[in-house]
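Please decode residue identities from the backbone states below.
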């Protein structure tokens, strides 16, 4: 079998994440050829599997923005270590330790 080829039993269905096909003990497909969602979405509107595409994109944007801002905030702190250490009794190592405790 060439690299990247799927066995006939698996075919393209393995390329869709979050889906499964059911087989009995003899290897016969009992899902009727349909892809079943795994995990199956509940009826709860707050289940992320039931969210609208816009809400999913908003959630992804929030997580991405938070990640970028945390990296930016951490990088900004390095510019004040020396002036802050000179104006206080806390050394640079103490500042680094105090800030690392926050993250």
């Amino acid at each position: 079998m060439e690299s990247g080829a799927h066995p006939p039993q698996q075919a393209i269905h393995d390329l869709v994440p979050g889906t499964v096909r059911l087989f009995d003990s003899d290897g016969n497909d009992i899902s009727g050829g349909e892809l079943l969602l795994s995990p199956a979405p509940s009826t709860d509107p707050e289940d992320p599997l039931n969210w609208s595409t816009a809400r999913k994109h908003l959630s992804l944007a929030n997580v991405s923005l938070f990640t970028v801002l945390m990296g930016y905030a951490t990088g900004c702190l390095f510019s004040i270590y020396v002036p802050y250490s000179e104006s206080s009794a806390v050394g640079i190592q103490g500042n680094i330790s105090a800030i690392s405790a926050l993250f």
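Observation: DSSP finds three helices and two strands in the chain.
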